[in-house]
TrEMBL record:
CDD domains given in the database record: MPP_YfcE
Enzyme class: hydrolase
InterPro entries: Calcineurin-like_PHP_lpxH (IPR024654), Metallo-depent_PP-like (IPR029052), MPP_YfcE (IPR041802), PdiEstase_YfcE_CS (IPR020935), Phosphodiesterase_MJ0936/Vps29 (IPR000979)
Stated name of the protein: Phosphoesterase
Pfam families associated with the record: Metallophos_2 (PF12850)
Cofactors: a divalent metal cation
Every Calcineurin-like phosphoesterase domain range: 1-162
Gene (UniProt): yfcE
Similarity annotation: Belongs to the metallophosphoesterase superfamily. YfcE family.
Species this protein is from: Vibrio breoganii
Phylogenetic classification of the source organism: Bacteria, Pseudomonadati, Pseudomonadota, Gammaproteobacteria, Vibrionales
Length: 181
């Protein structure tokens, strides 16, 4: 099974289109959204090509492929535009290997405030806009970075899980970070 991860779209249509194109090119079976889908949030600049309603329309075309969690900028109003659930603070996905992916945005659960994890689990979150794929001893930390507003001098990126390898990839195809799980 191959999974595609995107986080922190923040309502940018151009970035969302790039993410959808990368999702198609990846051949992934599922499109995981780690929150902050439609709104830019009060601490972020309004992205160029800010068009939350059109982002919703585009993502709704993939509603059967999407697994999503709520970000700190997501709300009940956003759910009214989206045809897939976005208001859960976390989701747990069981991998074929028996390991679990704990999916969350990162504002409630993160490496400083861990959710209940078993040894070998993966904590996958966005929120910081910083790409990470690293073993943390008992668990793996994964953050695909931000599709729209990368921070820390990083470029826009997304994530992939394939053959027990987590990778953060730029839209130019460069692997920014990766680890085996």
């Amino acid at each position: 099974m191959k999974l595609f991860f995107a986080s922190d779209l923040h309502g940018c249509l151009a970035s969302t289109k790039k993410a959808v194109e990368a999702y198609h090119a990846s051949g992934a079976q599922h499109f995981i959204l780690l929150g902050d889908i439609l709104n830019h949030g009060p601490r972020n600049p309004v992205p160029e090509a800010y068009a939350p309603a059109q982002v919703a329309e585009l993502l709704n075309e993939y509603k059967d492929d999407i697994i999503s969690v709520r970000g700190n900028c997501d709300s009940e109003v956003d759910q009214m535009l989206l045809d897939f659930p976005v208001l859960s603070d976390f989701a747990i996905v069981l991998l074929e290997s028996g390991k679990r992916l704990f999916l969350t945005h990162g504002h409630l659960y993160n490496q400083d405030r861990l959710p209940p994890l078993k040894s070998g689990d993966v904590l996958a979150h966005g929120h910081t806009h910083l790409p990470v794929a690293a073993s943390m001893g008992d668990y793996t930390l994964f953050n695909p970075g931000s599709v729209t507003l990368p921070k820390g001098g990083n470029v826009a990126s997304y994530g992939l899980l394939e053959d027990n390898k987590l990778s953060v990839v730029s839209f130019d195809g460069d692997v920014l970070s990766e680890t085996n799980i």
